[in-house]
């Protein structure tokens, strides 16, 4: 930088491939690859195409075929996140070669940006009501794969393209399974040589430190019942307990009549042992008054899913006026590098940032594997 090792343009073009290599969850999502010509800013709403969903019918020779229109629906998508890494130029003065600059800045910056983006994307578990496994018990057996597979099969999810993202604990447990470690007998030994789970029971498996842990809010939740009958198709309900205090938070799972519902919005604190409006997904069937309600405990939210469950998009950020900057993009990911001057602290700064967003498209194509 100040030693003129590399230009802003070259720095951006060297960093982007390393950023792409470190992304895990975004690379497994449905990707909106369209690029806007003009720059964008935080909070902008764009339109992205939703994957087409077709239905197969039995052929009836008497009536003939049933034609379906291929209509590419679009959904509103908010670019609500900027991941950024910022350093003082003086921190890079010791980089006397391009190789040193790669080690002290380019690779760490790309890894930090990717980790932040992975973490934000994996928070989409909050939209998923479907869950298998035991809260507090790390997935560690082949039965955990089969449980996730069964849940997706029951939801009629596509078989092709399925993947799973596990936290470090589950990854370590799986890579020590005899059936995976000794997979070399079947011609595969990635678990032994690379520490990689590989493909198991139809899932391509990945590890990410960004897998989220869901902590329930401070709440006393005992002997809780539905407070008033619920009509079919309702998106909210009231609950009441003998000593219900505290609140529910987004991502909590309620179990009512044996079916899971995820809380889609933080609730108000209970008043008179009642939380009057709990918004949930999916829509409720007809539920009787005083039906029992249980709350799933805190858990690590590993995810097994089809790519169409979630969408990821980035857009080029606006190039600031009056400073040196460069925006580059590839395969739907855009990176901006800016070199500027902080007048308040009288120092040169170098900034790398990515404008992006995530959205859940089809919750039924994903399942939490609790740990």
Describe it.
With 371 residues, this protein is an alpha+beta fold. It folds into three domains: 8-100 and 309-360, no CATH class; 125-213 and 301-307; 216-297, Elongation Factor Tu (Ef-tu), domain 3 (Beta Barrel), CATH 2.40.30. 20% of the residues lie in helices and 33% in strands. The protein contains seven helices and 23 strands. It has helices at residues 8-22, 25-28, 98-122, 142-154, 168-175, 178-181, 190-193, and strands at residues 30-31, 45-49, 74-78, 81-88, 131-133, 163-166, 199-200, 203-207, 213-214, 219-220, 224-226, 234-241, 245-246, 253-256, 259-263, 274-284, 292-295, 299-305, 310-315, 324-330, 333-342, 347-360, 366-370. The strands form five sheets. Strands 5, 6, 7, 8, 9, 18 and 23 form a seven-stranded mixed β-sheet that branches. Strand 14 (253-256) and strand 15 form a beta hairpin. Helix 1 packs across helix 3 (98-122). The chain is globular. The two termini are 45 Å apart. The model is unreliable at 184-195 (pLDDT under 50).
């Amino acid at each position: 930088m100040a030693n003129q090792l590399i230009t802003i343009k070259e720095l951006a073009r060297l960093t982007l491939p390393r950023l792409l290599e470190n992304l895990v969850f975004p690379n497994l999502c449905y990707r909106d690859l369209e690029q806007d010509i003009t720059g964008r800013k935080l909070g902008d709403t764009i339109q992205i195409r939703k994957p087409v969903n077709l239905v197969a019918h039995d052929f009836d020779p008497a009536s003939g075929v049933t034609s379906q229109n291929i209509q590419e629906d679009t959904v509103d998508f908010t670019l609500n996140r900027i991941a950024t890494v910022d350093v003082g130029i003086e921190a890079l003065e010791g980089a006397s070669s391009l190789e040193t600059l790669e080690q002290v800045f380019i690779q760490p910056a790309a890894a930090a940006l990717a980790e932040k983006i992975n973490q934000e994307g994996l928070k989409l578990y909050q939209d998923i009501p479907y869950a298998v496994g035991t809260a507090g018990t790390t997935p560690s057996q082949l039965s955990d794969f089969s449980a996730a597979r069964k849940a997706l099969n029951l939801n009629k999810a596509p078989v092709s393209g399925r993947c799973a993202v596990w936290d470090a604990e589950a990854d370590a447990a799986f890579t020590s399974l005899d059936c995976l470690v000794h997979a070399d007998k079947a011609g595969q030994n990635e678990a032994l040589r690379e520490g990689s789970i590989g493909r198991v029971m139809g899932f391509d498996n990945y590890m990410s430190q960004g897998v989220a842990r869901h902590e329930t809010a401070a709440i006393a939740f005992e002997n809780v019942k539905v407070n008033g009958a619920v009509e079919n198709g309702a998106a909210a309900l009231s609950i009441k307990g003998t000593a219900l205090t505290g609140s529910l938070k987004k991502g909590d799972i309620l179990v009512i009549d044996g079916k899971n519902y995820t809380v889609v919005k933080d609730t108000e604190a209970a008043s008179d042992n009642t939380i009057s409006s709990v918004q949930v997904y999916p829509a409720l069937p007809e539920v009787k008054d005083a039906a029992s309600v249980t709350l799933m405990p805190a858990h690590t939210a590993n995810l097994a899913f089809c790519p169409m469950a979630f969408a990821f998009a980035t857009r080029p950020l606006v190039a600031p006026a009056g400073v040196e900057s460069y925006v580059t993009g590839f395969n739907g990911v855009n990176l901006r590098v800016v070199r500027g001057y902080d007048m308040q602290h009288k120092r040169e700064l170098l900034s790398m940032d990515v404008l992006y967003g995530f959205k859940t498209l089809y919750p039924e194509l994903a399942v939490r594997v609790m740990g």
